Amino acid sequence: ATPTALLVGTGRGAQLGVLIKGPEVLESTRRVDTIVLDKTGTVTQRRMALETVVAAPGSAEDDVLAHAAVVEALSEHPIAQAVAAAGASSDTSDAPHDAGADGVTVGSLQAFDFRSSAGGGVEAVVRRAHAGLGTGTDLGSRRVVVGQLAWIGEQGLTVPTEVSDAVRDAESSGATAVVAGWDGAARGVLVLRDPVNDTSAEAVAELTALGLRPILLTGDSEGSALTAARAVGIPDDDVISRVLPQDKVDVVARLRAEGKVVAMVGDGVNDAAALAGADLGLAMGTGTDVAIEASDITLVRGDLRSAATAIRLSRRTLRVIK
Ligand code: ADP
Ligand code: MG
Questions:
Q1: Does 224 contact ligand 1 (Cβ within 6 A)?
Q2: What pTM was computed for the model?
Q3: From 38, 91, 220, 296, the catalytic residue
Q4: Which class in CATH covers the domain with range 3-46+196-321?
Q5: DSSP string spanning 191-224?
Q6: CA-based nearest residue to 254, from 215, 228, 285
Q7: Which of these, 318, 62, 315, 310, lies nearest to 203 by C-alpha position?
Q8: Which domain of life is it from (predicted)?
Q9: What is the tens place of the pLDDT at every residue in 224-238?
Q10: Is 267 a catalytic residue?
Q11: Is residue 284 helix, strand or coil?
Q12: How far apart are CA 71 and CA 83, in angstroms?
């Protein structure tokens, strides 16, 4: 391959919204036969929407949302952005703001000491922001957890059947559901919608027409994964759900061990290792910096159809050369 033609190929890519790290990337792009697609933020919009809040018996929806929102204001996950935004807008005060010491204030609550558990959920210490100042009253602080049902159980919180039923119903309808809890019990469920991008079905059709096998890979539940897959035309058998970030790497490695040449498209911090471990990593330009750094190609427009553009471009460029 002549370097000049490859450079022309990468230059053409830039015009088409496909940012290629170096000319040598085009060679692996051409040979790809399997394309692993992350769900949240890749096939679906990076912008989730909070649909409903279901409170456990004895808890109030407002309280569940307020506690979840202040914790999620410290996380970057699309789930977190939706919950934090809903919590801030349901409150009379301003958007989340810095509370110092790595903390944040949303409405009347402050969260500190944030921790995140990959593929499980997030937690922080929450306390009232203003009340009790100068009165000497200790209103206390509590550790609040927000995450997937199984992980909430593993944290030692009791889960009322109303909560597990609400999660099951939401997931079987294709929604994403996370549970919020504190003081030893699950307090409610946050139900989110994760709409597929307008262009995702077309992108999957284009990739398939190019002879690639698309596989959907997600940390989310089976219900929401199957719903997204069906909406874009990926067969149920090619859906892999509830996968921890480190296991995303293993899925890619397993496909490669079977002799496949694997591309991976992702957007999240949780996709970075799999993007780096694939023959070809493609990051959504709308995604996190970590994903972009781990990838060979950036799809600048955040449009999955650009993945097909990249494959076509590499095949054309290398045909011209050979
Ligand atoms: P993906 O991006 O493929 O959905 P993740 O590994 O990021 O996968 O998330 C997997 C699951 O972990 C989510 O569906 C959710 O249940 C839980 N989770 C991750 N991050 C958060 C968060 N910030 N708040 C609540 N739950 C979370
Ligand atoms: Mg994602």
A1: no
A2: 0.86
A3: 38
A4: alpha beta
A5: EEE-PBPTTHHHHHHHHHHTT-EEEEE-SS-HHH
A6: 215
A7: 310
A8: Bacteria
A9: 999 999 999 999 999
A10: no
A11: strand
A12: 9
